[in-house]
Amino acid sequence: MLPLPTERLPRRLGQLLPGLVAFGVGIALMVNADLGLSPWQVFHQGIAENTGIAIGTVTILTGIIVLLGWIPLRERFGLGTILNVAIIGNVVNVTLLLLPEELSGLAMRWTTMLGGIVLIGLGSGLYIGAEMGPGPRDGLMTGLARKGFRIGAVRTGLEISVLAIGWLLGGTVGAGTVAFAVTIGPLIAFLLPRLTVQLS
């Protein structure tokens, strides 16, 4: 495990925790909109549909399993990694309980979906910028990259794989999936430099 950081710790925790919450709420909004999810969430939803386990709980369990994949890669996790696994899935479950089961009208669904993408982008910028350890899936990609694989190829391969498996299991693939793929990279690229905590 990475040592607990002390430099600018209040500031870093002050954006890590809201970032993880925002990320979880964003996922729940996209699920609620029912227009398509990000690749990993298609995978989580597919498993949830076939097991009866809540999608947020599947997100937690998948995060734990992915962390086990870090062991042979000798990837080191941080406090942010642990909180990522513990918080996001629970926030998804709670938010879905609070949201209406069905949204009325396509305009409301699109608004909800786009709001979810923006929150996921903001949450990503906040928790990555806190510099307290990568999320499980990000760490898996960087760990494989350090073993000599091209990170772009690793990311694409993983996301196509989980998307295909999730779709086959009944996860929702649609306009939201495309919108997420097109916008999330530029959104994080814009936000991350502005949200990264500067360390000496």
- How many domains? The number is 1
Which residues form runs of ≥5 with pLDDT under 50? none
The total beta strand count reads: 0
Query: Which percent range fits the helix content?
Result: over 70%
Strand content: under 5%
The SSE string, one letter per element, is: HHHHHHHHH
Distance between the termini: 21 Å
Contiguous helical run count? 9
Alpha-beta content class: mainly alpha
Give the overall average pLDDT: 92
Q: Please compute the radius of gyration using only Cα atoms.
A: 16 Å
- Major beta sheet, specifics? none
Shape: globular
Structural description of this entry:
The chain is mainly α. The protein has one domain (24-195). 75% of the residues lie in helices and 0% in strands. It contains nine helices and no strands. The longest helix is centred in the N-terminal third of the chain and has 25 residues, at 9-33. The mean pLDDT is 92.
Key structural traits:
single chain; 200 residues; mainly alpha; globular
Topology overview:
Blueprint: H1 9-33, H2 39-51, H3 55-68, H4 70-73, H5 79-98, H6 106-129, H7 136-146, H8 151-168, H9 175-195
Helix pairs in contact: 1-5, 1-6, 2-3, 2-8, 3-5, 3-7, 6-9, 7-8
